[in-house]
Write a structure and sequence with these properties.
17% of the residues lie in helices and 31% in strands. By secondary structure, the protein is of the alpha+beta class. The longest helix has 22 residues. It starts with a strand and ends with a strand.
Length: 766
């Protein structure tokens, strides 16, 4: 056995998305970092070995897609990959190589693959000094010393070996009064899954399952118990098994049982299912996973224990470092061995049931303290092993969310080292620095905005050659978004529930509104309309606020007619420029409110799913409306709001789409500034979840070709120029710092949008 020693500032154990983002974040902050991964590829459950595609908040909330390092990775994957991403089973090695490329290209980062942590060594009761790592297939053992350790192993391996306290299973209802908690506590956990992928061969292909595969004979097992065949070409999350086996110690037994079931399910599809066997006749099994994807095992106790009440109530934490927005998704323990699949699936994904209402949550903030071990001072946590209850894990565990936790942990580790503190003992000033670094690195925090004292752009004035105005959108509007537009809804979508359309207010007046409605009842119908103030596009409270205005709309019989409302609202009525109002129509099943033919950026919609609570309508696209006067809600000052996405306002500059490119946005200071770095955030890939974007995708809103110029010596000097861009965040360290009182960004071409768009500009002296 070969032995060697290594030493780093930060040692990240586990190479899933949380681990990758933790390691890259710490390395970018100047720390010397090592990442230890026990598989030959990075990505954990998202890798080509397991193929669980990353989910996140945008599955349920418009403009909620996670940004930061995870966004860089997913944008790159879609730009390079020739295959679609639909659901589990579709991941290929392009994704593996995107992750690998980032890891090996990041300065200060050392990568150890096929390496397993076998021992943890402490030099004090509350302090880890090193870990022992065994490299598979190399007869090598490495003693790796570190100053900060981050456990991203999923199973909490490092925390367990270090003697940390952890929880397993489900808390009982009486402990925290969580609505999703079972009446009695138990050791039950959510199970693990494996996936498969099939290929259409263009001709009939037989399949014979081995004798040891499970043989299914009863259609009720699938169709009456919530196990839906939503895609013939890929595997299903519900091929899942946990109890009676332990998801750690019985992992190999679970793998074999899952393989038996997966082959048996494919046998059912191919040979016995009365609905599918003809459709599946030409399909051949192309790939089947042999590494179980885990949902739950150890949850390590931290400095705060997050329960279901926090995401459900959107608790505001002073140490917020990430956000989530998946629903409280607790799979039936036992999986395939349970009486039904996960409750939402068993209900047919009903969106207005009692279960759906109590499970829908977010977006909500997540505190740094759940990443801080309570027992070891230099051990941080990231991934599904963080300090949460079983019920809270139902929403925190999805991979896009855990990637944010990883970036936060890596950033916190670097700040702790820089400030000479233990990683689990950061004070408010330290945490504020972590928050501002995360924002600068592209992350979004619902309750924080850019207050970076080093960003001199915050003291500038912004102006542009033109700015778009919102007139509204109709069903006939042309969709120029190249995939950004909304998904098709049913041809007839009656107002069975109260529905709301968010409208950004860019003037202090709304004289009139109109909505496109159909009424095929044969008699005149009445619909109550109201304008309600809202705090953000995720303010789903319904009926809690006094409307700014209310009107009964008379809807005569007919199709697609514009029904007007003379609202006559001004600032004197409480109308606030620089925020949102929600145009609501009360339920009337005899009336349809038609969806727009395209999405107006920053203008989303929702419907009342239950008493006083809304949820996203469809994919959150724009419902048809007209507004007078047109709203000036894409002004150049939006690039300096401190928030780089639609949230409390549109927060983006858009040029007038009727004007030709190039278009320019300029910053001007009262006195000269010395600028060494310019950082830009562009709109794009926020509205919908990663799964919704096609192969080789480049978001139309994102500038493709642009340049940055500084005013020097009475003329403009180009200090940076880019062609072929598709990433939404770009940093430009200038070859030489410039003294200037004016800086401009010129968008010469986009990836398809007729408007030039910028979400944020930052400028630093170095």
């Amino acid at each position: 056995m070969k032995m060697r020693q290594e030493a780093y500032d930060v040692v990240v154990c586990g190479g899933g998305l949380a681990g990758v983002c933790a390691a890259v974040a710490a390395a970018r902050q100047g720390a010397g970092v090592c990442i230890i991964q026990d598989r030959p590829v990075l990505g954990g459950n998202s890798s080509s070995e397991i193929r669980v595609t990353p989910h996140g908040a945008a599955q349920f909330h418009a403009y909620a897609r996670e940004t930061g390092i995870i966004s860089e990775l997913l944008i790159e994957e879609r730009a390079l990959n020739h295959e679609p991403i639909l659901e589990n089973g579709w991941t290929n090695s392009v994704w593996d190589m995107v992750l690998y490329n980032l890891a090996v290209s990041t300065p200060n980062l050392t990568l150890h693959l096929n390496s397993t942590v076998t021992e943890v060594h402490k030099d004090a009761e509350r302090h880890i000094s090193s870990v022992t790592v065994r490299v598979a297939g190399a007869e090598t053992q490495i003693a790796i010393e570190g100053r900060v350790f981050i456990d991203c192993t999923g199973d909490g391996v490092v925390a367990d070996l270090a003697g940390c306290e952890w929880r397993w299973g489900s808390e009982g209802r009486e402990e925290f009064s969580e609505p999703h908690a079972p009446l009695a506590a138990s050791g039950d956990t959510m199970g693990s899954s494996i996936h498969f992928k099939a290929k259409d061969m263009g001709r009939p292909v037989p399949f014979a399952a081995p004798d040891w595969a499970v043989r299914h004979e009863d259609p009720a097992f699938f169709y009456d118990q919530g196990r839906h065949f939503y895609d013939l070409a890929a595997g299903y999350w519900w091929i899942e098994i946990g109890i009676p086996w332990n998801t750690i110690y019985d992992n190999e037994h679970i793998r074999h049982e899952l393989t038996r079931h997966a082959l048996g399910i494919w046998d059912w599809i191919k040979n016995r299912d009365p609905l599918l066997k003809e459709k599946a006749a030409n399909y051949a099994l192309d790939w089947i996973g042999q590494v179980p994807g885990k949902r739950e095992s150890r949850r390590v106790l931290g400095r705060y224990f997050m329960t279901e009440h926090d995401p459900a109530g959107r608790t505001v934490f002073p140490d917020e470092i990430a956000y989530g927005g998946w629903f409280i998704d607790l799979h039936s323990t036992g999986g395939l061995l349970a009486p039904t699949a996960e409750p939402s699936s068993a209900e047919g994904y009903a969106e207005t049931s009692e279960y759906a209402i109590k499970s829908y949550c977010g977006p909500y903030g997540i505190p740094l303290r759940i990443l801080m071990s309570k027992d070891v001072d230099n051990l941080l946590l990231a991934g599904r092993n963080v300090s949460v209850s079983h019920a809270a894990l139902g929403t925190v565990r999805v991979m896009a969310t855990t990637a944010l936790l990883g970036q936060a942990a890596g950033t916190a580790a670097a700040v702790a080292l820089r400030r000479g503190r233990e990683a689990c003992s950061l004070d408010f000033a330290d945490i504020r620095e972590v928050q501002q670094i995360l924002l600068r690195e592209g992350c979004f925090l619902p309750n924080c905005r850019n207050e970076d004292p080093g960003d001199v752009a915050r003291s500038a004035r912004a102006r542009a050659g033109s700015s778009a105005r919102v007139h509204g959108v109709g069903p006939e509007s042309r969709d120029y978004t190249g995939g950004f537009g909304g998904t098709r809804l049913p041809d007839k979508e009656p107002l069975t529930h109260r529905r709301g359309q968010w409208i950004a207010v860019g003037t202090e007046e709304i004289r009139s509104l109109a909505v496109c409605l159909s009424n095929e009842s044969g008699t005149e119908q009445t619909v109550e309309a109201s304008l309600v103030p809202v705090d953000s596009i995720w303010d789903y409270e319904c009926g809690a606020k006094q409307p700014l205005a209310r009107q009964q709309l008379a809807v005569p019989p007919g199709r697609m007619q514009w029904v007007a409302w003379e609202a006559g609202l001004t600032a004197a009525d409480g109308l606030r420029s620089g925020g949102y109002v929600r145009l609501e129509l009360a339920a009337n099943p005899q009336v349809e409110w038609h969806k727009g033919g395209t999405v107006i950026p920053g203008h989303t919609s929702a419907y009342e799913m239950g008493p006083s609570k809304m949820r996203r309508y469809g994919d959150g696209g724009t419902l048809s409306f007209r507004i007078d006067p047109p709203q000036a809600c894409y002004e150049p000052s939006n690039v300096l709001t401190g928030i780089a996405r639609p949230y409390d306002y549109t927060n983006i500059w858009r040029s007038d789409p009727a004007g030709p490119l190039p278009q320019r946005l300029e910053l001007e200071w009262e006195t000269e500034e010395c600028i060494g770095t310019v950082e830009l955030a562009f709109p794009g890939q926020l509205f919908r979840e990663y799964h919704r974007y096609p192969p080789f995708y480049r978001d139309p809103q994102c500038p493709r070709d642009y340049s940055i110029d500084a005013w020097t010596g009475g003329g403009w000097t180009t200090v940076a120029s880019v062609k072929g861009n598709y990433q939404t965040r770009r940093r430009h360290p200038l070859s030489e710092a410039v003294k200037t009182d004016k800086l401009r960004v010129t968008v010469h071409a986009t990836n398809g949008d007729p408007s030039a768009c910028i979400a944020e500009i930052r400028c630093y002296r170095s």
